[in-house]
Structures are given as structure tokens and as C-alpha cells.
């Protein structure tokens, strides 16, 4: 009986740890999800790859925002991202750039 309780506690701990490590795509991502994932390349680079590219740059979020607004390739090996990523709302784009820059 004691081993069952310990096993259940360990399993619960692993579930909590796993969910704490996972990062979900924010609701605001909308159309971005068609080409991007958090981890790994889809059509465009994964957002963790983008965050790594700007790691240690205090202006990372603003540079990511500028790139999103301009559209282009940005040195990645994929097709061209449309300007603004097809998103019209500046507040959404700013929120997403901060999210991306903050990924570890």
C-alpha cells in the first residue's frame, strides 16, 4: 500500500514538472501558428530558435517586432514571411515579440 502511494506521488510530481516545462502557443498567435511552432521548424523557424538568435540582446523584442512588421527571410532557410505575418493589430504583434524574446 505504501509503495502505491509513493508511486502516485512520484507520478503526480512528474506531471507537474512536465507541465511547468512545456510552453504553450499564446492565444494571440492566431495566423502565426500556420507557419511557426514553439519548438522546431514548421515552415518558418521555431520561436525558441528565434529567441536563441537574439539571446542576450536587450533590444531583442523590438528587433523581433521590426522583423515581423517588415516581413522577409531574416537569414533563415525558408520561404519569405509576409509583412506583419498577416496580423493587423500592433498590440498583438508587440505582445508576440515580447513572448518570443522571453523564450528559453
Residue stretches low in confidence (pLDDT < 50, at least 5 long) are 16-20
In total, the number of strands is 0
Q: Average pLDDT, to the nearest integer?
A: 82
What overall geometry do the principal axes of the alpha carbons give?
A: globular
Radius of gyration from CA coordinates: 18 Å
- Quote the beta fraction: under 5%
Q: What is the makeup of the main sheet? A: none
- What is the tally of helical segments? 4
Distance between the termini: 40 Å
Helix content: 40-55%
Brief digest:
The protein is an all-alpha fold and 104 residues long.
Describe this structure in words.
- It is a single chain.
- This protein is mostly helical.
- Helix content is 48%, strand content 0%.
- It has 4 helices and no strands.
- Helix 3 crosses helix 4 (90-101).
- The model is unreliable at 16-20 (pLDDT under 50).
How do the strands and helices of this protein lay out in sequence?
Elements: H1 2-21, H2 47-53, H3 60-70, H4 90-101
Tag the structure with descriptive keywords.
single chain, 104 residues, mainly alpha, 4 helices, 48% helix, 0% strand, globular
Amino acid at each position: 500500500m505504501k509503495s502505491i502511494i509513493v508511486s502516485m506521488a512520484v507520478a503526480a510530481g512528474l506531471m507537474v514538472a512536465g507541465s511547468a516545462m512545456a510552453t504553450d502557443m499564446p492565444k494571440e498567435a492566431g495566423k502565426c501558428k500556420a507557419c511557426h511552432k514553439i519548438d522546431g521548424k514548421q515552415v518558418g523557424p521555431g520561436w525558441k530558435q528565434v529567441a536563441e538568435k537574439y539571446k542576450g540582446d536587450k533590444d531583442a523584442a523590438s528587433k523581433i517586432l521590426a522583423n515581423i512588421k517588415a516581413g522577409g527571410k531574416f537569414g533563415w532557410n525558408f520561404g519569405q514571411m509576409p509583412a506583419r505575418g498577416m496580423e493587423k493589430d500592433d498590440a498583438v504583434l508587440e505582445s508576440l515579440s515580447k513572448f518570443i524574446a522571453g523564450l528559453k
